[in-house]
Amino acid sequence: MGIYIMKFHTDRHLLIKEVQEAFNRTYPFLKIEFSKKKGLGYSSPEENNGEGENARAAAKNLLWEEFGLSDNMKISELEILLQYQFGLPVQILRKSGNLWMETRLNRHWTLRQQNNHGEDIASGFV
Question: What DSSP letter does each residue of 79-122 carry, written as one string?
């Protein structure tokens, strides 16, 4: 099953935003960051006349069904998949206190390991 919502330029921006949000709901101490090229903005669901629900469903399908997103996926694997899908440079960031830090040195860690480490750091700041 393909994701047809990406046919239109504005829908692509909405899908990117929804992928980021769906990912962050599952891994609250991790964040997907795409490099924003000139003119690349992310629209909100309100700006897309109800297309938000379609983008939300497409984002969920993309992450969990097509990419096979799981706790055991490595950071480097997800970055490669997302970069291939969207054609934009991407990196996964980990929350460290009030900051988002790069995970470059630990790209071989799994999503669960990175998220747990972010949670451990956050609990030290409480």
Answer: HHHHHHHH-S-EEEEEEETTEEEE-GGGTTSBHHHHHHHHHHHH
pLDDT tens track for 29-56: 999 998 865 334 443 334 444 456 666 7
In whole angstroms, give the CA distance from residue 28 to residue 25: 6
Where does the pLDDT of residue 62 fall: very low under 50, low under 70, confident under 90, or very high at 90 and above? confident
CB 90 within 8 A of CB 79: yes
61 contacts 100 by C-beta, under 8 angstroms: no
**Strands 90-96 and 30-34, sheet pairing:** antiparallel
Tokens at 15, concatenated: 């899908």
Cα-Cα-Cα-Cα torsion 20, 22, 25, 31, nearest 10 degrees, comes to -20
Task: Please list, in sequence order, all residues whose beta carbon lies within 8 angstroms of the beta carbon of residue 45, skipping any fewer than 6 positions away.
Answer: 14, 51, 52, 53, 55, 56
Residue-level pLDDT at 52: 60
**Domain spans in the chain, listed from the N-terminal domain onward:** 4-124
Give the count of beta carbons closer than 10 Å to the beta carbon of residue 21. 13
pTM of the full structure: 0.72
